[in-house]
Amino acid sequence: MFSKAFLAICFAAVALGKPVARNLQVHEARTQVPPAFSLVGAASPDTVLNLRIALVSSDMAGLEKALMDVSTPSSTLYGQHLSKEEVEQFVAPTQDTVEAVTAWLKENDIEATQASPAGDWLSFSIPVSKANELFDADFSVFTHTSTGSQAIRTLSYSIPTDLKGKLDFVHPTTVFAQPFSGPRFSIPIVPPSAGNLTSRAVPSSCNSVVTPACLQAMYGIPTTSNAISSNVLGVSGFIEQFANQADLKSFLTRFRTDLSSSTTFTLQTLDGGSNPQGSSQAGVEANLDIQYTVGVASKVPVTFVSVGENNQDGVDGFLDIINLLIGETTPPTVLTTSYGFNEPDLPTSVANNLCNAYMQLGARGTSILFASGDGGVSGSQSQSCSTFIPTFPSGCPFLTSVGATTGITETAADFSSGGFSNIFARPSYQSAAVSSYLSALGSTNSGKFNTSGRAFPDVAAQGENVEIAVSGQFGLVAGTSCSSPIFASVIALLNDQLKEAGKSPLGFLNPFLYSTGASALNDITTGSNPGCNTNGFPAKAGWDPVTGLGTPNFAALQAAVGL
């Protein structure tokens, strides 16, 4: 029975065209402004915010099981990757969830549109004044102190109590993603190495300048491929970093004389992305990534995915690019990304959602590789800290994180980020390897990291004194942003041979790498990654949080994948 007073309130609300008030509860909150940002003041009430709502998916646990089944060599389903439609069945929210959230939005005169292939994201635009009222928030302007870039965020927001368990989170609200910084470019002080090599003898010059020839010699990387059109190596591009065709031609002319100097890449854009070709517009990071994919993964089709500055996903386009690829019928078989964040920059909800997006792409058969970062144990870049700072997305268990080595007799590069996530638990596939390392580590750095977290990196490759061409000049770069495209090229070449043999691409790599693939890597046992006023983690026999399981041995990897 409803009371007359309650019915009167309802009728009054309808008559006035106002929504019935709902009980709100705080959904996400930060206790303080992140150290890299400062509060400017309240945002203008009339400023329009482009917001997104993540809905709770119906069966992410089921998708994770499916991913592991198709990615674990001992599984009877190994290599039987899921279709776009099969993945969407796991990810799509229930009809009840969709109806409940959209009804609440319509009560507030908000028409949302679907913003992801599976319908787990909704997007809409409202002024700051309405957002503050709807979410009991205080949207304000914050400045990133070192770059001056500004963003409108809130330190807390609330959602209706009855939507808990249906509405995952509102975005961007409490995310404070710091702008990326790219690798440094310097002119080499030693002559460049020779062109293409076919022997495993590594020239001594590779100690000071790394080229494709050095990588071929060190890792046994083949100089040819079958150039299968469906085996695409994707390269992520952000922050208006543009890949220059003329520089690629110069690079191939000098270092890959066996390839046509006109060998190039395909361009794909989103969020207003582009790839202008002015010499002054050539990007160090973009050139590095393209030159060490096109120039190492011989004739494997390469696509440069340029994410523009019109991204409004709150994480510099990271969400947009994955949603784009998830929506494709045939996404790339490998995707390498040389950008990332410090894990504390992202709310747990956002990190989880992005990680689940990588899981979706992995289940489709894509090998996702990310550079682990360049700050040792202090995060993506060197910074002051009292406890170790893990990077994201490297802490996500559904992708492969790549650290860095240096020298002909490989040792860990001291900038190679590695450690343990504070968000994601250690996955079973790496449990034995990480437990062995922690036992050997003993009490070193006790209390400075989460011993039960997902450990990274998973693998490594050369990352120092890597030669590239930029704006018509040759020079050297360093960072794990060198290592990720190099390792990705190795995987692309393996996929090329697997596809030629009528087999599936490798897809999500880690269950393979931590089992049958571990012995096919060069174990790195020297060096460390200092930071936070410590020596960081030491590299040791087996897996370690500096170089992972090690660097590639192509012939051994061929055997491990059954070629």
Automatic annotation (TrEMBL):
Native species: Ganoderma sinense ZZ0214-1
Q: Where is the active site?
A: 285, 289, 481
- Pfam families found in the cross-reference section: Peptidase_S8, Pro-kuma_activ
Q: In this protein, which residues make up the domain named Peptidase S53? A: 209-563
Example GO molecular function term? tripeptidyl-peptidase activity
- Record function comment: Secreted tripeptidyl-peptidase which degrades proteins at acidic pHs and is involved in virulence.
What InterPro entries does its record include? Answer: Peptidase_S8/S53_dom, Peptidase_S8/S53_dom_sf, S53_propep, Sedolisin_dom, Tripeptidyl-peptidase_I
Entry keyword Signal? yes
Check the UniProt entry and state the signal peptide residues, or none: 1-17
The protein depicted here goes by the name tripeptidyl-peptidase II
> Where mainly found?
secreted
